Outer membrane protein TolC (Hymenobacter antarcticus), 439 residues
Amino acid sequence: MALAGLLLGLPGGPARAQTPVPPPAQLAPAPAVAAAPASPRRLDDFLLVARQNSPLLRETANQISQNRIDSLVRARQNGVQVGGIGSALYYPSITNSRGESVLGYDNAVTNGGNYAAIAQATKPILNRFQLQNDYQIIANQGLVLRNTGRLSALDLRRTITDQFLMAYAAESQLSFSRSLLGQLRQQDGQLRQLVNAGVFKQTQYLSFYLSVRTQEVAVEQNRLAYRRELGTLRALAGVADTALISIEVPTPPTHRPLAGLLAPSQLRLGLDSLRLLLDRRAVDAYYRPRVSAVLDAGLQSSSYLPIALARSVGIGGGLQLNIPIFDGHQRQLQYQRLKLSEQSRRGYRQYLTVQRRQQYEQLEGLIQASDALLARIREQVRVADALVGAARQQLATGDVAILDYLNLVTSYRQLQFSLTQAETDRLRSRFALDYLGEQ
């Protein structure tokens, strides 16, 4: 019932059932939105651009504005409605030679014709229960739309973040490949001199030469991979830039606890429960007597002659009552439909609660395992870097064979790749935990 209490404070809620909702022009202006960078580099910049360019978020905002208009429409519907009624009906009658009618309606019923031009005004009265429920339904729809907007924004953030991490991993691999290629090229000249001096054989140098060419191919492959991942990221965010730029290292989010019942995914099920309650009340309201005050003014006559029309101007008024009596037990059938919907909603809530807790605990375990793995890989990379540095110095003096040095470089390359993958996986788990904590 917390949601029902929340609705009491909304414009158009039951506490203001008889008070018109302020028109959109009187609503508070939207907060200013920060300008999106033309060529984003940071994760926050991509998220900002994606939110501003997302047609789904823009559509949700428009639907929220339409929901405000729905409140105004419902308020107008409860006001005075004026309509015009016009009719010109002629009822012919055929008689025989004795003056007896052989074809046509009874003149006592039709008076030969009906000519009318009336303006009629109606206003619902004694409908407080139905009006309050209608306002609550509209307010609930507004809450659902806002919650849907939060979920859409979270899904967009998750999509952009995952793609940003893939682009970051590709750029990290490209940066390492370039650095390694630069070192190999620097040693290439030294090895040429050592080969010419007879320190190494020509066949040994050819193995090193092939390794340099292989690393050049790896650099180009990594550049294409980064260009592809960066292009996908820009496409998701709606960025038109095509330049190959360097993106900044994402900042890991802080540890966020698992959100409770006010999280968008949980709140959606709570709003569904409230909607089912309001739908049941709407069924009850439909079967209540409906009373309207009616007032009309105009002319009605059984003759189309001007004199008769001039003498047939008048006014009328009264009450109009509509009472449902029997409709084949549709009311009970609608109750059964709502009961089945409530059972489905409860099943979803139970499943979602267990699933979110399991995913949250799993991500916490993955982060702890990633921290331990990263510590081991970084230590191995540190040792491998020291070995490669020492072997590079001994290679210049001919104390290390070229093949042994290449084996060290290959191991160092594989460890660096494993380090990049482990760091990316850890960041992905940290951002996934942050997303789940807010979802």
Confidence is low (pLDDT under 50) at residues 1-32.
